[in-house]
Amino acid sequence: MSHDLVPSGIVTLLSDFGQRDHYVAAMKGVMLGIDPLLALVDCCHLVQQYNVREGAWLLGNYAFDFPAGTVHLAVVDPGVGSPRAPIACLADGQVFVVPDNGLLSFVLQNRGCCARCIELASIVGVRPGRAACGKGISPTFHGRDIFAPAAAMLASGKLKFENLGKEISPLVLPVAPAEERPGCLFGVVLHIDAFGNIVTSISHDHAQGRKPLQLRLAGIVFSDFVEFYAQRSPGTLVALWGSSGRLEVSVVQGDAGGLLRVRPGDSVECELGGA
Hints:
This protein is an alpha+beta fold. The chain folds into 2 domains: 10-163, Rossmann fold (3-Layer(aba) Sandwich); 179-272, Elongation Factor Tu (Ef-tu), domain 3 (Beta Barrel). The chain has 6 helices and 14 strands. The chain has helices at residues 23-34, 52-62, 105-111, 142-156, 204-207, 256-260, and strands at residues 10-15, 39-44, 71-75, 86-91, 94-99, 115-119, 179-181, 184-192, 198-203, 212-217, 220-222, 237-241, 246-251, 267-272. Strands 7, 8, 9, 10, 11, 12, 13 and 14 form an 8-stranded antiparallel β-sheet that branches. A 6-stranded mixed β-sheet has the order 2-1-3-5-4-6, sandwiched between helices. Helix 1 (23-34) packs parallel to helix 4 (142-156) and helix 2 (52-62) packs across helix 3. The longest helix is centred in the middle third of the chain and has 15 residues, at 142-156.
């Protein structure tokens, strides 16, 4: 980390490993072996398996709520063992340790001008993460053997970001922005959360203070825009600006994603009025 960035000692974890197996515990064991005083924060281990875009969305929505100097360890890695690089990225005071497969897409969408990314493979001492127990690097579990040691050393200050080696340009998945046409914004579904709320690519910034008048999604046109869910009775289909600052479609105490049968990538259209 740079001279003006002090490690917080916090490491967050995100993965598609689920809750049944030993994988998350193994990563934590490696990190605590490096520094038993680290604060390990489980953010989500129920990312849809192999769904890098979903992991990227979640990571981009919580990372910058943490204190500066936090290390974010994210492993959704269908290409484990392949030539894809393990990387570390410094962006606006936060450090990210991830496979270079697009997991930083939503982080870099808003913070890219402040980001510096390096390839972990060039760091002496990271790859022998299991040397202490006489084992080498598993080609199928880089989360334990590469990413966890790197995250722990960065978070504890045992590895300085300024001493890292080769800089690279990370892979960024295409993130469809909202397209503006006269009186309308056109976007796509980005994510459907555990409550069935449909998050779109249309942001409050895109609207520039103009009021949404009508929304078209999955062949349905409706105009019930609210500020919060409790303004309508259970079962009502509504639209609102969600906590991520993006336009969301919800069913009050229900499942909008299931009702409308939409998927990430489906198109959405929002008609706008005056400010």
